[in-house]
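Bump. Still looking for Methionine aminopeptidase structure tokens.
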Amino acid sequence: MATYSQKDIAIIAECGLRMAEILRDVAKRAVPGATTAELDQCAEKAIRDAGGVPSFLHYRGAVGLTPFPSSLCISINNEVVHGPAYPVRSLKNGDIVGLDIGMRYPAKSGFCTDTAVTVVVGDGAPEALRLVNVTKEALARGVAAVSAGCKVRTIGKAVETYVKEQGFSVVREFVGHGVGQHVHEAPEVPNFASRGEEGNVVLPVGSVIAIEPMVNAGRSEIDILEDGWTVVTLDGSLSAHFEQTIVVTKDGPKILTPFL
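Sorry for the wait, here they are.
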């Protein structure tokens, strides 16, 4: 697991501020009739105009996967994460849409941040709105659980305990992660109180992680579509996703992607 110097963290923080501004703008554009292509093109232009490069575009992920085709992950309704912008889809009133975005800044030799928000398009059903709000709060509780020297499982326990109390479930196959020099780094950051090796990892001062609850309205099980990227709920229930990049300081967590 990498730890970063104050000089490095200052650059990561600048990246995060720019990323948060871009995500807020993209989220405002998620209205009925907007297309996934329009949102993706807006995100890519804003990232490049800010002096960065999209860290998801052409990302290969697992060996053998087709490179990811867009700068923005756009996951709609029962899609959990990693929905590509293409083929193009139009947003409808009542949809809930996860917008996940990453940037490397400065473009040639910088650092990465990763952040996501789920928004309701137009007028949402009460249960959809509740799911979004619970997932947002689960993220806040996960961040608040961080302290210098804490174990990773502390984060997951805070997230999962709250989500279960609300009658929802957390996805277990996909987790948060370290971030900084690369899009995905050690450690894994599960959204449940893992008793495995990953749960025992201790977070020192200077570690940078992305905490990202993925919460399903129904069961926790997921499937992956034929495109190899789009993760969906196995039971067809709605799913929501929020994510922040944070740095561990001696005084606790500091959010580097303050979009909320």
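The helical segments are 6-28, 36-49, 126-144, 152-165.

Edit: fixed formatting.
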